[in-house]
Structures are given as structure tokens and as C-alpha cells.
Amino acid sequence: MEELVRAGLAAAEKAGALYADVRVIAPQRYEHLAVRNGEATALTYSSRSGLGVRVRTRGSWGFATASGVEAATVRDAARLAVRVARAAEGPKAPALPVTSEPGPSNGRYQSRMKLDPFEIPREEKLALLTDAERALHVAAEVKNGHTSFQAWEEVKWFGSSEGVHYRSRIVHVGAGADATAISGGDVQRRSFPNSFGGDYGQAGFEFVRSLDLVGNAEKTGREAVALLNAPPCPASTTTIVLASDQLALQVHESVGHAVELDRILAWEAGFAGTSWVAADDIGKLTYGSPAMNIRADASEPGGLGTFGWDDEGTPARSTPIVKSGKLVGVLSSKETASRVGLSESGGTARAEGFHRAPLVRMTNVNLEAGDASMDELLEGVADGIFFSTNRSWSIDDKRLNFQFGCEVGRRILKGELGPMVRNPIYSGMTPEFWRSMDLVGDESTWHLWGLPNCGKGQPVQSAHVGHGAPVARFRNVSVRGG
């Protein structure tokens, strides 16, 4: 495979590229198993191999891809990529600005795991899902039980004309369960350990076992049934406390996407919108309260956004994004960083697979823990709402105005968690919302969540990202029932 990479680089240079990189992925594997109401509804396994060649001429990028991993294929792709770049640059295109980054000449990265999920017998995985799904059915109102398991593997060889070469094997895995209860025309769902299929990590099958789907299924089913009789969330402007799972999605939608530098430069306007943040805001903008500290960390152990080097060969980095409420950094690639005068890339250029060119993507964008215990987060709240587990979300194309609904709410009464409320919704505007955060939970409330379905780009790419979040408190937030 390393010889294949070098053959592609040589062909690109011969065709006139000023720069080239080659990614060979062999294999890229995926497994998905699911059980619904006692029957297996997904038994998916796929494996594919291929390569992508990206080149830069003086004024443009070119990219070409092909399935298969033969020398003739990579040479053809390299020559096509150069032709694409030349066709796009025009007769008087200015030179493309890019940062220069050091990288490994023989790098190696391997996901840490004890049990390779692809080596665990399918029967064992299905038995776990079946037992957990059965345990969800605690009452007649539970009309639908669902459990699922997913695993991904990517073995990649990368090389660039700047002398960077590395090999990596990354494995992601996750599972979850959800129960849907129905009565009198009302429908309520409760998910464990999170919605969007559960929780995910860069690990082996030991991660799935640690979730204890069977042990938590009965509680999940009972909460779904209890929500049918819970009162609706009252409408008010009040203090709210967000659980770690919901706060992770809040970070994703209103911070992570908003600080992607290609969005800030309006390169992403066609598909996924731009950003309310401007390039000139870096180092100046008050994004949130002094309690807000966010970091993009591609070195976080076990994260879906963790790797050795990105798809430009830039080493994994831990980059401050918001420090004491002020915007101090962004997510960037070599070209986007250079466009705004940054000295180095943020190391966040990532592609879904060999068939896509790298885009600026989130890594593990984490809200750092504070020093408040759970009791301290609730203390002093006379009448508020605790929100947990996302059910619906909506945010505009600038990542400014948003509305989130959760599966379950709890009244906070005189500093104590009270009864459930159903269909809780909160809304706001990004800067005002983050500036209202007055207390952040400590490490005991912090969890690193995996999100395997972040969409971006044209053609669309689905990225795996991570978000660490504690529990946190926000004042004067608009709340209502759905």
C-alpha cells in the first residue's frame, strides 16, 4: 500500500501538480445490527476499498477517486485530479495560500481496544440486543422496543508530496436502546444511554458491554410509560439545567458548526449555511459567560474525533476555541487557516472515506468541566426545569436562533429535582444563551459522547465527532411544552 501511495504521488508530480496527497483505504468496514419487537431488523455488513488523490496546482485544487487499489488505478486518478485542478483554476488564478505543517515520515496510529468488535460472533451481539429489547417491554403501553449496535473500521495509508507518510487503523463502536410508549393518542419515547442510537466511542466491544443495555432497559421502558401521564412542561422564562447528553448536542449545533472556518468564510453556504461568527471576531468576540471554556481536542482518549493525523497529514491537536467566554480559536484546515492569517492549521481536515475530499470537520469539541457539584447546580433554583436527552432540534443557517426539545424534563423545585414533565422545549439565540450560563458542573458530571452522523458538504459527508460535556445551568431561558 505504501508503494501504491508513492506511485500516485509520482504520477501527480509528473502531470504537473505542485502538491499532492494520496489516501488509500483498505478496508473500510461497517456492521449494523438491530432488533425491534423481538425480530432482527438490521443485519448489515459491508466492506470496500479504494483511494483518493488530491492535488494542488497554482490556483486550484483537484480531486479524483477510484475503487480498487491497483497501481494503474492510482496513476489514472492522479492524472485526472491534475486535469480537474487545471480546468478549475482559470488563466490568471492567484496562488492558493496554505500553511506548511510538519508531519511524520513513518507515522503509526492504532485505536486502543481489548475486544475487536468485528471478531465477536454475530450471534453473541444479537443475543445481547435481543435480551435488552425484551427487557424494554415493562408494560402494555410499550408498543415498540428497539436496540441497535454499530461498528466501523478504517485502515488508511496516507502520503503527501511534502514527505508526510502515516498508517492508521481506527475502530468506532456503539449501541443503544429505546422504548416507545403509546396511550390515548400520546406517544412518548425514552432512549438509553442517549438518543441518535445510543453512545459511541473509539474502542472495542468492551465499550458496548460497559453500557449494560440489559441492566438499564427496564428503567428506560418504565420512564417511557411514566411520561404518558406526566404533565406538560409549563411555559415560562426560567432557570434551566441541561444534562450532559443534551448539552453535548447544544455544543455541537451552536458552537461546533459555528466555528468551522469554511462556514465563517461562507464556503459552506450552499448546503449547511454559514455562521454568525466573522473571521475578525477571533480573539475579540464574547461568545459566552466567563464560565464557558471550549476546546477542540483530537487527542482525547476514546473520542470519535480522535486520530493521529488529519487527512492533510497535520498532527492531532488540542486547540482552545472559547476561553473564559471569549472566542480564541476556530476549526481550520491548511488553506482556511492561511486565508485568515493563522500560522498553522487546526488539524481538522477530514474526509468520510476515500471517495470524498477533506473538509473542515469537528474533532472532539468539548465544554470543559467547572467545579460545581450536582447539588450546587440545583441549589438556589426555586422553580426551574431539568432537560435530558434530545428529542428534536432546529437551528438556523447561521447557527444563531435555535429550539431544542427533549425526551424528558424534571421540575426543579426549591433546589431539588421534582416530578417529570413531558415534551419540554427550550429556545434562544446562541450568544445570549451561552452568556446566561452561570454555573458548570464538575468532572463527576462530565461525559464524552460520540455522534456518528454529523452531515456536511456537497456531496454530503457524514462525520464521526465527539463532544464532552458536563451538566450546566442557564438563567432566563424561554421554556414551553410541545
Summarize the structure.
The protein has 482 residues and is of the alpha+beta class.
Through-space gap between termini: 54 Å
Main beta-sheet strand count, sense and barrel state:
8 strands, mixed
What is the quaternary state of this protein?
single chain
Query: Which structural class best describes the helix and strand composition?
Result: alpha+beta
Low-confidence stretches: none
Mean pLDDT: 97
Shape: globular
What is the number of independent domains? 2
Strand fraction: 35-45%
The amount of helix comes to 10-25%
Number of helices: 11
* Strand element count: 23
Q: Radius of gyration, rounded?
A: 24 Å
Please give a structural write-up.
The chain folds into two domains: 2-228, 2-Layer Sandwich (PmbA/TldD fold); 236-481, no CATH class. The protein is globular and about 70 Å long. It is of the alpha+beta class. The strands form five sheets. Strands 1, 2, 3, 4, 5, 6, 7 and 8 form an eight-stranded mixed β-sheet that branches. Strands 9-16-17-19-23 form a five-stranded mixed beta barrel. Strands 12-11-10-15 form a four-stranded antiparallel β-sheet. Helix 3 packs parallel to helix 5. It has helices at residues 2-14, 71-89, 122-136, 205-211, 213-228, 244-256, 261-264, 269-272, 334-339, 374-378, 430-435, and strands spanning 19-36, 39-56, 61-67, 107-110, 142-160, 165-183, 186-192, 199-201, 236-242, 294-297, 318-323, 326-327, 349-350, 359-360, 365-367, 383-395, 401-413, 416-421, 424-429, 437-440, 447-456, 461-469, 472-481.
Question: Keyphrases for this structure?
Answer:
482 residues; alpha+beta; PmbA/TldD fold; eight-stranded mixed β-sheet; five-stranded mixed β-barrel; 23 strands
